[in-house]
Write a structure and sequence with these properties.
Length: 284
């Protein structure tokens, strides 16, 4: 990808005068102990796309080096990426920072770096750059409305990967609305056996309304929700930064309040693994 097309655009970016770094079968990756999660992620993703082994290095013989250094003059979740003909260095202020730096490194490769297997011989060359980046906002989120249009768990997990690629750190799940209830409440099974399904969906907002005639529905079991919450990007820990429990209606009455889940990932070891709720706990 051309440097000018990086998303989001880095805070500071300069293109070097040196040749770029070519990835070859002898390219090695090394990381300090706080960046091991990112090292494993990067090897898995780039190895699958390029077919290269990207074996572990020992620092001296590694062309790609990852490290966490809180004294490097970077803000929270910030990183510095330096690439030249000799190698690529990613330094993060914290584990999320080094992970976001690795995401930028991947973006700088050809688009084939996002494939799950190599499809044709290619030259995997990283351009010579010096990038320093940091987020402007600590809360960078995206809402996924699965109440109106259900999305299977596999697709939600894929969506989390896309959020991480764009350096977003909050997933807001819109779980209930008048068009569907998407979270299992074992004490009230009809919320999902009835409320998670509809006979058809309205097409557009015209008058009179037009419907597609196709049944639609689905819901997440409590284990599904646990799996989604337990799937943070590498090098980060998970936390329920905020959650609002669904209101439980009286029998034979419809749900009266939406259920929202906002999941935020923060740096491992920062005390972020606790979960808090802004209301009473959801009934089992």
């Amino acid at each position: 990808m051309p440097v000018s097309l990086l998303v989001p655009r880095p805070a500071e970016l300069s293109v070097g005068a040196y040749d770029g770094l070519a990835l070859t079968p002898s390219t090695r990756i090394d990381a300090d102990h706080t960046a091991r999660g990112t090292e494993m992620w990067l090897r898995s993703e780039l190895g699958a796309a390029t077919g290269l082994p990207l074996a572990p290095g020992d620092g001296q013989n590694a062309q790609i080096r990852l490290s966490v250094d809180p004294s490097a003059g970077l803000d929270a979740e910030g990183y510095r990426l330096i690439i030249d003909g000799e190698g690529a260095l990613v330094v993060g202020h914290d584990p999320p920072g080094v992970f976001y730096g690795a995401q930028t490194l991947r973006q700088l490769l050809p688009a084939g770096a996002y494939r799950r297997s190599p499809v044709a011989p290619a030259a995997w060359v990283l351009p010579s750059v010096h990038i320093t980046d940091r987020p402007r906002f600590g809360w960078r989120g995206c809402m996924l409305d699965v109440a109106r249009h259900f999305m299977p768990k596999h697709d939600v997990l894929r969506f989390i990967d896309l959020l991480a690629m764009h350096k977003l750190n909050v997933l807001h799940l819109h779980l209930t609305d008048d068009q569907g209830w998407r979270i299992e409440i074992k004490r009230y099974p009809k919320l999902t056996s009835v409320g998670a399904w509809r006979r058809e969906s309205q097409v557009g907002a015209g008058h009179p309304p037009v419907f597609d005639g196709r049944p639609h529905g689905g819901f997440y079991t409590q284990d599904d929700i646990r799996e989604i919450v337990a799937t943070p990007p590498p090098g980060t820990s998970r936390s329920f930064r905020r959650s609002t429990s669904p209101a439980i209606p009286r029998p034979r009455s419809p749900p009266t309040r939406n259920s929202e889940r906002a999941i935020r990932w923060r740096s491992a070891g920062s005390g972020a693994s606790s979960r808090t709720s802004s209301t009473s706990p959801t009934p089992p």
